[in-house]
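Intended use. Records such as the Carbon-nitrogen hydrolase entry shown here are meant for training and evaluating sequence-to-structure methods. They are not intended to support clinical decisions.
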Amino acid sequence: MPNKKYKIAVIQLNLNDVAENNLKKCLSWVRDAASQGAEVISLPELYSSHYFCQSEDVNNFALAEPLYSTSFIAFSALAKELGVVIIVPFFEKRMAGIYHNSAYIIDTDGSEAGLYRKMHIPDDPHFYEKFYFTPGDLGFKTIPTQKGKIGTLICWDQWYPEAARLTALQGAEVLFYPTAIGWHPLEKEQYGENQQGAWMNVMKGHAVANGVYVAAANRIGLEQYIEGTAGIQFWGSSFIAGPQGEILAQASTDKEEILIAEVDLDLQENVRQNWPFFRDRRIDAYGDITKRAID
């Protein structure tokens, strides 16, 4: 019988360090989350390094790792030891010249339940991800695990209702969003509140429109490693929302934290029965959604 209830966690961390230190740190925090009862645990985007996409520098490709190497080996062993599901976002070297912003979904026995490659790739000031990442080619997927059916999207995917919908339609109970998002410090006073609010509101909207739990795991801290720039101040604010967009757990903007909340599948079903958005979808009228623009 599927689990009717299980606990999920997102871990909010400062990851402005070298890969070896970040790996040790994240292993420790995952262990702490499991000790608090978490059964499905997500790390932030690109957990193993500082956010290197602030510049276009070929030397940063050295931060990437092949599939099933360092990160998979370490977290696979930990997942098996603890009997938990772990979402591990990492910089994937697929082959020379092809790199992805990816995430393992590692099951309770240490096996790979699934792999997701970030589909939407941004190119904004100090978020120069198109220089590094080939767009994902695995599509939007719900991954069955021993704890529940997990949908994993990554950061910029947060802004796209199509991504949330297509994942939820495959049976996802939770949409996880490993994230690296923050303020340009010089813009924070003027735009910061609205930017942060929009980020949270769009994901709460995905929860409501799809009747799913949503969990966002962001990083914190000022990462200012390029001379002459103000860097990025990651805003934390990780959260877990229920299927009506209700906030079940919310992190600060500046502290390392573990957030834990319970997924209740009976509640989810009840919400969908009373708000039957899937039932009333006019799939016969949505053909134009695949066009770039409706001219």
